[in-house]
Amino acid sequence: MKSGKKYPGKFLLVMLALSLVTIMNGCKKTEYNAPSSSSGTPPANEVWMQNNTFNPSTITVSANTTITWRNKDSVTHTVTSDNGAFDSGNVGGGGTFPHQFTTAGTFSYHCTIHSGMTGQVTVH
Ligand SMILES: [Cu+2]
After folding, report:
1. Which end of the chain is more exposed for a tag (fewer CB within 10 A), N or C?
2. Which residues does the chain have with pLDDT short of 70?
């Protein structure tokens, strides 16, 4: 009897909570889409410099593919081949560095500014 009365109240609270969650999620989506934020996933053949990491850190492409590195951070990064095969120089926030890989092989690279910021390209 008493417990029977409690359920409609609880139900309304749950519905209210669900509505709030839905509304808040809607707001979040709008906020994230408005500025060029660092959320999301890089498109094919693109590597993002994001939160001082290369994303993805390893990428595999076929020969003659151009990979574009895009700096999603506000700080400067570089895309520098470990063996000197390519070097972007300084890429400022929002900047890009395209490079075409014409020969098969594995190419390790790093950022000269941030130690531990490393990546690898495999060309087949
Ligand atoms: Cu860097």
Report:
1. N
2. 1-38
Cα 61 from Cα 101, distance rounded (Å): 9
Please state the pTM of the whole predicted model: 0.70
Q: Classify residue 30 as left (phi > 0), alpha (psi -120 to 50) or beta.
A: alpha
Is residue 40 assigned to a domain?
Answer: no
Give me ligand 1 centre to Cα 85, in Å: 18
Instruction: Tell me if 41 is assigned to some domain.
Output: no
Centre of ligand 1 to C-alpha 115, Å, is 8
Q: In this structure, are 26 and 54 located in the same domain? A: no
Separation of 92 CA from ligand 1 center, angstroms? 10
Q: Are residues 1 and 29 in the same domain?
A: yes
Please tell me the total count of domains within the chain: 2
Both structure tokens of 24? 């808040």
The SS3 call for residue 47 is strand
Count the alpha carbons within 13 Å of 5 in the hemisphere toward its beta carbon. Answer: 2
